Amino acid sequence: MSSSYSRKRKNPPHDRDHAITTLTTNHTSQLGLNPSLFIQAHEADVLSGSQAFQLARSLAVEVLPSGEKHVGDALIRLNVGFVQRDRDENGKIVSEGGKHDVWVDRYDARLLLDALPSLPHETDPDDGRLSPAGWSDLPSDSEDTFFLTRDETEDYHREKRRKVLENLREERMRALREERDDDEAETRVEDTWGGSDEEPDDTQRELMRRTAAHLFSSPNPAQLEMRILANHGADPRFAFLKGRWSRTWRTAKARLKAEKEQEKAGALSGLAGYGDSDGDDEEEAAEAEAEEAEQPEDAQARAAGGGTLSGGGGDGEEETKAARRARAGEWAEKRRASILNDKT
Q1: What's the domain range around 156?
Q2: Which residues have C-beta within 8 Å of that of residue 70, sequence separation ≥ 6?
């Protein structure tokens, strides 16, 4: 609320404030309380217009165009001074002015001090003690985690470690693949196949011979060959199963097959000889049995008609022997056939 400064009141503000303050102080002192613990209200006048402008100028220090200073009437000179120094962007002093007085109003708290404390002489900052480090010198994730919470920072570092481990694993796998590719390339260069007339060494020949022997001794050679190829297909020593040294491999199998057939033929011939000898023995036994069976018949015939038999005895004996041999041969053939059937 604004009003004229010259307007008279029945109760001036300062008298009323003084009365309230005195009453409050007396009341609190009677109660034994500290007055500073209570709220005190004060009333002030708000001025406007030309009078307010004049009061504002009385509290300001103006620098005139001539360089002189105009100090307001409401200001009091403080018994201290300071030196004006201008600094550049790096903090270094570039200029230093003269000593300036300090002017304060009458309500300034510095007036309650007998003297201001003396400050040490300002020195230029030591550039050697200043760290030249910045964001670029800190770890790459310092700026990213600056505004994160503790849990978010831990999650960020955990994810970063996981990515680092994955990258290391990929590098190791890439190195292993490159090494394996180099080894395979060297193996391909070393194991270059020749033509069909390529001859293996003695060790390879022996391996081929043993493999062929196993194949011919198996009841299913084709299945055994496929199993060997599946288990040892990557081994260059078994490349003959895939077409290398084809002529030598065919020769080894043919030679072994011929040996097997010769052994089988020898076994069959021995078996046939054994059967012939058995047949001869059986034939002789059959003839002996036939002779023994016919002897009583001849004796009876001679006893019944001795003259007749004696007259034609030579032709009768020949016929009897021929019939006996025929029966013995027939019996031996049947016996030999039954033996062969039992063996097969």
Answers
A1: 135-190
A2: 61, 62, 63, 64
**Of 145-149, 224-228, 314-318, 329-333, which gets the smallest average pLDDT?**
314-318
The answer on 207 and 161 residing in a single domain is: no
**Confidence at residue 2, expressed as pLDDT on a 0 to 100 scale:** 41
Range in 114-128, 254-268, 286-300, 323-337 the model is least confident about:
286-300
Does residue 61 register a pLDDT over 50? yes
CA 334 distance to own-chain centroid: 81
Write down the residue that tokens 């309650």 correspond to. Answer: 112
- Reference 77, options 66, 69, 68, 85; nearest CA is 69
Total tally of structural domains belonging to the chain = 4
In a domain, 65, yes or no: yes
Kindly state the tokens that stand for 33. 């309380």
Q: What's the pLDDT at 174?
A: 92
Q: How many CB atoms lie within 10 A of CB 309?
A: 15
Q: Which residues contact 96 (CB under 8 A, 6 or more apart)?
A: 83, 84, 85, 86
Q: Is the pLDDT of residue 163 over 90?
A: yes
Minimum mean pLDDT range among 237-246, 298-307, 332-341: 298-307
Short-list 120, 119, 239, CA closest to 191: 239
Instruction: Please choose, from the candidates 99, 101, 42, the residue with its C-alpha nearest in 3D space to the C-alpha of residue 71.
Output: 101
> Do both 268 and 206 map to the same domain?
yes
What average pLDDT does the chain have?
A: 71
Whole-number Å distance between alpha carbons of 219 and 210: 16
Structure tokens at 296: 């009583």
Q: Give the integer Cα–Cα distance in Å for 17 and 119.
A: 40
Query: Phi and psi of 5, rounded to 5°?
Result: -70, -30
The C-alpha R_g of the chain, in whole angstroms, comes to: 69
